[in-house]
Write a structure and sequence with these properties.
Blueprint lengths: L1 H18 L23 E8 L2 E2 L3 E5 L4 E7 L6 E3 L4 E3 L5 E4 L5 E6 L12 E7 L1
Parallel strand pairs: 1-4, 3-9
Antiparallel strand pairs: 1-2, 4-7, 5-6, 8-9
């Protein structure tokens, strides 16, 4: 019985220690602007969400230019998903640096079921040459 309790206590301690680890996706605080990917963003895009809409109908980026995308949840519970950039942001994971590698018009949608207007919460991302 004691061995079982010791095993359970050890497992719980491991889970607690694992949960306290550093966030690997967070940008370092060394002030250089270089992220964990080794790329310094040259542009910034902020996407804000309120109930059932993003702050803009269209967002524009340049192909090949590293951009820091930040998501701000202004009202309600929302997230942002951009499949073309393989990107999903929410309140906990709200920023990332990406480099668009193809041109075109792509869909931005809410990634968290937010209510009756969820399916209409769509904007466009235009990536230009």
């Amino acid at each position: 019985m004691r061995k079982a309790l010791a095993l359970i206590a050890s497992c719980m301690l491991l889970f607690v220690l694992a949960a306290c680890g550093a966030d690997k996706d967070a940008a370092p605080s060394n002030g250089t602007g270089v992220t964990d990917t080794g790329v310094a963003p040259e542009a910034e895009l902020v996407i804000s969400a309120t109930d059932y809409q993003f702050d803009k109908q269209e967002y524009t980026l340049k192909k090949g230019v590293p951009v820091q995308i930040t998501f701000k949840n202004e009202q309600g519970n929302h997230g942002v998903m951009i499949p073309a950039l393989n990107l999903q942001l929410n309140s906990k994971n709200n920023t990332a640096v990406v480099t668009p590698d193809k041109t075109g018009t792509f869909e931005i949608s809410c990634s968290i079921m937010c209510g009756s207007g969820h399916s209409k919460m769509i904007s466009k991302l235009i990536i230009e040459e």
